[in-house]
Design a protein that fits this description.
Elements lengths: L3 H11 L2 H33 L1 H37 L3 H34 L6 H16 L2 H14 L5 H23 L8 H25 L17 H33 L3 H37 L3 H28 L1 H6 L5 H14 L3 H16 L3 H27 L1 H4 L2 H23 L14
Helix pairs in contact: 2-3, 2-7, 2-10, 3-4, 3-5, 3-6, 3-9, 3-10, 4-5, 4-6, 5-8, 6-8, 7-8, 9-15, 10-11, 10-13, 10-14, 11-14, 14-15, 14-17, 15-17
Amino acid sequence: MKDTQTEKRNKLGVVPIPKLLFSMSIPAIISMMIQALYNIVDSIFVAQIGEEALTAVSLAFPIQMIIISCFVGLGVGINSAISRRLGQNKNSEAANVAEHGFLLAILIAAVLGILGFFTAEAFISLFTDSSNIIAQGRAYLMIVTVFCFGSFITQAAFSTLQGTGEMIQPMVGQIIGAVTNIILDPIMIFGWFGFPAMGVAGAAIATVIGQLFGMVYMLLIVFKSGKSYLKLDYQVFHYDTKIVKDIFKVGLPAAIMQGLASLMITGYNLILAGFGMSAVAVFGVYFKIQSVIFMPIFGLGQGAMPIFGFNFGARNRERFNETLKVAITAALSIMIIGTVLFWLFPAQIMMAFNPSEEMMEIGINCLRSISLAFPLAGISIMLSVSFQAIGKAYVSMIASFIRQMVVLLPVTYLLAQAGGLAWVWYGFFISEIVCLAYELFMYRWYQRTIFDTWEAAPVTVQN
């Protein structure tokens, strides 16, 4: 009888790519869509309080993006390191990677919690002098940063399982957190069932409680249930600097890549603030809405990464390239659908957020203009995942820097000066063209410098 780990190796190394990719991606896509849903529901509830409350949450979003970038980067590092070791049949070392991952999650969350506690008010004050917006933004930020350890530990567990090819349990954990958040949002925000009405702070409390529920479930799966494909045991844990370096080698560029989005949003908000707080609120709404389109792409990437990593470790060029082709085709299809929806129904989408007349006018133009970049972004994301999986995450980081810092913000500023608010949104399309050109160049480079060298000494995956 084959052991569980051998079955997993066979799955990642021999199952036909279309079937394997979609079977692994669908649970991740479902969980990411639920994540997107509760982000949107959160903003819809907050919008009912008023435009100032929605603006406060929108201004807080860049700091949330920093938190997300850190735990996503950590997760990418863990996932890539585990899947590559399993492809090389280094199972015990893969388990040790996971053990390091949980310890790093706790450490990073503690640092961010302390920083968030002391800097929340100063950050919100950069954009407005409204005491009401500052107070609400400060309360929201302090809660989500101080209690961010739930999301970090949960991500470490997600990536531990995903690195082995297990996608169902991470989906269940994501669902538990999201559903808890959705249920608690109106209770905490509006004061249902005898609870005090806490407004924006209530939305933050509902978020962190949902994260803690998901964390508890995932810890039980990884450490207690026996369903994990890696057996973690801290009684025999041994620290290995090489493992930490490997996690950070892939994870840090991925985190920086995500963190650049926070800087981009901050810079974009500073540009938009010159046109009024309604423009800032619209941009915040856009980022919540676009997650419905982008989250399935990120879920597809989560399913693809262990396949990329395993077959790179096994030097199976054909399966690696086929995975990329199938993933790009799927991503492109999803993004085209998203663009069509944003062009046909922008007013209907904006109506969910209780917009003022000014917000509606700005929002329709925003959704239609930015969505033109969606198909290019879909291709770019899948190329980025492939770089991360082979341990070349710095390529993705550079691509993200080019997209958001070198091109997007300067171009947006120039467009704002030349054409006003109506033109600022087209910076996204221009930046995606430049970023994709760079990633395609690097993909061809690695095909020549790494993959071509395998022809002389191919490695066959054992059944």
